[in-house]
Amino acid sequence: MQPALDIELNQPPEDGITKITFLPQDNLLLASSWDTSVRIYDTLHNSLRLKYNHKASVLDCCFSDNLHLFSAGIDRGIIMFDVAGGTEIPLGSHNEPVRSLVWDPTSNALLSGGWDLTLRVWDPRSQDRQVGCYQQPERVYAMDLTGNYIIVGTAARHVWIWDLRHMNEPVQRRESSLKYQTRCVRAFPDGDGYVLSSTEGRVAMEYIDPSSEVQAKKYIFKCHRVNIDGIDYAYPVNTIAYHPIQGTFATGGGDGHVCIWDGKHKKRLAQLRKYPISISSVDFSSDGAYLAIASSYTFEEGEKDHPPDKIYVRSLNTFM
Questions:
Q1: Sign of CA pseudo-dihedral 159, 236, 281, 244
Q2: pLDDT tens-digit profile of 255-266?
Q3: What are the C-alpha distances in Å from 38 to residues 103, 184, 218?
Q4: Among candidates 88, 87, 146, 152, which has minimal Cα distance to 120?
Q5: Rounded to an integer, what distance in angstroms lies between the CA atom of residue 293 and that of residue 7?
Q6: What is the reported pTM?
């Protein structure tokens, strides 16, 4: 890939892009969409390498390695796709749409969160597939894994933290520090806490240790806001991704901007150019050299005409 600022990928999804994530092989990018597709792009050659479809819109995707993909969404079913064999393997299903998927490399298990108020654990190697089902306080909207902890953000602003070694009950039951609906949860690289975003144009830096000394370090900041004629418009913060080396993180908002933050020093480092429409998902490559950006309307302003969905890959050689 040449060190240009932005490369627009060919053959993007035809409806809302729900997730983009780099595979361990850094030139490969996985994408899921409301158009029912899951795609792998070769960003080095700007080509669509693989595509398969669900029966309905796909809300999330992830991977265990370059050859095994997972996806789920509105049709309630979870698919494992074997890239080498080109085969789809059904893992199981929820009773309602599946919103979030996370792969746990320690236990070689897939975690899924659904609108049926459950967190489920799947072992692709076992005959029964599903090895655990755990009730959540509300519909699952976002999840992330840090060490042995899975952080689950649900409707009604609940945040439950589970220890995967002892799943009889959550180790912490919290209420979001943010006043409005949770959009994204991302764990700190060091495992000490997590970043939480919402529909109100705010981000919360939270810590897992419940001691008063540690909790005193948490804070909230405003972002993805636009002032028009003296009126402050707040946009949803749809997506968060950590840089794998520097520990900074990117946020993408309904204002069409991507911002880069230094959470420890409470500073915004940069705001990238405005993209055609909302930023629905971002992800850094594992070597930290590229940032993938999904520009896709997320309906924060209701039904309206909007630019087509696009995926950009930005070289960070001249930026970070």
A1: negative
A2: 999 999 999 899
A3: 17, 21, 37
A4: 152
A5: 10
A6: 0.94
